[in-house]
Design goal:
Largest sheet: 10 strands, mixed
Number of domains: 1
Strand order of the largest sheet: 1-2-14-12-6-8-10-11-5-13
Distance between the termini: 13 Å
CATH class: Alpha Beta
Strand content: 25-35%
CATH superfamily: Putative cyclase
Structural class: mainly beta
CATH topology: Glucose Oxidase, domain 1
CATH architecture: 3-Layer(bba) Sandwich
Number of strands: 14
Order of helices and strands: EEEEEEEEEHEHEEEE
Shape: globular
Length: about 220
């Protein structure tokens, strides 16, 4: 979804829609809600209670997700989730994403990288099989370039079946934050202003975000 903000800029909503049909990590809690109060029944307001995983839809991982000494969402550095971001489309369909996948793209001034793959073309209800994923080599390369945030349209920055989570840990080693399950469909490659703030949640492993690009 895009919204005009002026004659020269637009807002691109790069967030997956949270609904009961939204695909989640296999075995994770899907989104659901219960209507507690109902105006049609004579209550003064409609009131709902939400049940969902902290990793539902487009979200920011917190280091405590994979490190017992890591931070929670309320402790994350907000400035890394706001600022200039490069959207770059790559052709890789599966396997590890490496620096060569970005050959020919303008990376000047790179601070935040959002990787656009075929996964963005899938509907919210469809789980991506054999999705591509960053490699440790890529993360080290991004660190040398001064990147502070890596965003992906895939559900993880690691291979689906890799329980060691090497890329999660490498990102934390370099103090690079990450966003997962973005939707970059119909966003042209280029440089935008990203806003994707995690909620101020204590003692949990991640936070849903409303991620937008302005440009």
């Amino acid at each position: 979804m895009t919204t005009s903000t002026s004659t020269s800029s637009r807002i691109y909503d790069i967030t997956r829609t949270v609904s009961p049909s939204l695909a989640v990590w296999p075995g994770d809690a899907p989104f659901s809600f219960q209507q507690i109060l109902d105006k049609k029944s004579g209550n003064s307001v409609n009131l709902t209670t939400l049940t969902m995983s902290a990793h539902v839809g487009s979200h920011a991982d917190a280091p405590w997700h994979y490190d017992d000494d890591g931070e929670h969402p309320d402790q994350m550095p907000l400035e890394k989730y706001v600022g200039a971001a490069h959207v770059i489309t790559i052709e890789r369909r599966e396997g590890g994403i490496i620096p060569a996948d970005f050959d020919g793209h303008d990376l000047s001034g790179l601070q935040r990288l959002l990787i656009h793959t075929w996964v963005s073309d899938l509907p919210d209800s469809q789980w991506p099989h054999d999705f591509p994923y960053p490699t440790v080599e890529l993360i080290d390369w991004l660190s040398l370039k001064g990147v502070v945030l890596l965003g992906v349209d895939m559900p993880s920055v690691d291979r689906f079946d890799d329980e060691q989570l090497p890329c999660h840990h490498r990102l934390y080693h370099h103090r690079i934050v990450n966003l997962e399950t973005l939707n970059l469909k119909d966003v042209p490659d280029g440089v935008y202003q990203l806003i994707a703030l995690p909620l101020k949640l204590q003692s949990v492993c991640a936070s849903p975000v409303r991620a937008v690009l302005i440009g």
